[in-house]
Amino acid sequence: MPDQQTRADRRTIAAGVLAMVLFSGNFASSRHGLAHGLSVADLVLLRSGTAGLLLAAVLWRIGLGGLSLRRGAVLALLAGAPYFLLTAAALQFAPATHAAVLNPGGTMLFAPLLGWWVLRQAPEIGVKVGLLILGAGLLLIGGASLMQGGSRAWIGDLLLLASGFTWALYGVLMRRWEVPGARAAAVAGALSLPWVPVHLLVFGAGGIPAHPAEAAVQALYQGVIAGGIAVILYSRAVALLGPARGALLPPLVPALGVFWAWLLLGEAVTPAQVAGMVLVVAGMLCGALWRGPAVRRRTDTAREAA
């Protein structure tokens, strides 16, 4: 039924967009934590522990559903504690504006290519056009910010591109192994919990006892909102949309990141950045809504699995 399919598509896209809204504050939140007494290791501990407990409860309820522990461990390596370690470590070298551009930009670049290689699904015309529009928007948003930063910013930039690659591969493998979005997110979070005792044994509690208020804020945002709710929403969207169309969602992060920087931090927003935000949204909608019959059939099959 086309009307039901259209409504389901809109709900899926809305869930993905909401996930990007929640993700968009992640880099600013991490940067704030690093500037207020917490270390990269502290942030990884707070996110892994809080999100891990939340998602372990979800996994306890829904179960593995036939997913092997080996494949679950791969998903956890790509979207769990190691992924966040990459992004948090990058912010020691590069500013949050770099992260807001290069992390989702890497996902946007790698996901369609990996989907083509692993799933043998060539991007459709809507995705290709959407990527061109998105690329133009990202250049407008990130061009000026990527010219800033210290002499070691390139280290952070490489780490951010690597994190974009791992996130893209997570979405592709989730689709390849036909893992529903909620289960993939729950497995990635729950299997990151072993990091907590290892961390405490090696690093101890770090700066968390000395900065309890900041630690509580980071646990709430990093663990519950970005590491729990947003990951579930995004994973479900990718499971239904596919990696190529799902890759059109992360580029919303730099557009939203510029907005939050203006709203919360009082940073100036240039006309070029506003134009870039418009292009990013237009590109996302173009790729997400411009569909062919083959994609509709694949999406219907994925929706039954999810």
Describe the secondary structure blueprint for this structure.
Elements: H1 2-24, H2 26-35, H3 40-62, H4 69-79, H5 81-90, H6 96-118, H7 125-145, H8 153-176, H9 181-190, H10 195-202, H11 212-241, H12 243-246, H13 252-265, H14 271-289, H15 293-305
Notable traits:
mainly alpha; 79% helix; disordered C terminus; 15 helices; 306 residues
**Unreliable parts:** 294-306
Question: What's the main sheet like?
Answer: none
Q: Give the amount of beta strand, in percent.
A: under 5%
CA distance, first residue to last residue: 18 Å
Order of helices and strands: HHHHHHHHHHHHHHH
Overall pLDDT: 79
The helix fraction, in percent, is: over 70%
Rg over CA atoms: 18 Å
State the shape.
Answer: globular
Structural class: mainly alpha
Q: Give the strand tally.
A: 0
The helix tally amounts to 15
Descriptive overview:
- With 306 residues, the chain is mainly alpha-helical.
- Helices cover 79% and strands 0% of the residues.
- It contains 15 helices and no strands.
- It has helices at residues 2-24, 26-35, 40-62, 69-79, 81-90, 96-118, 125-145, 153-176, 181-190, 195-202, 212-241, 243-246, 252-265, 271-289, 293-305.
- Helix 1 packs across helix 13.
- The model is unreliable at 294-306 (pLDDT under 50).
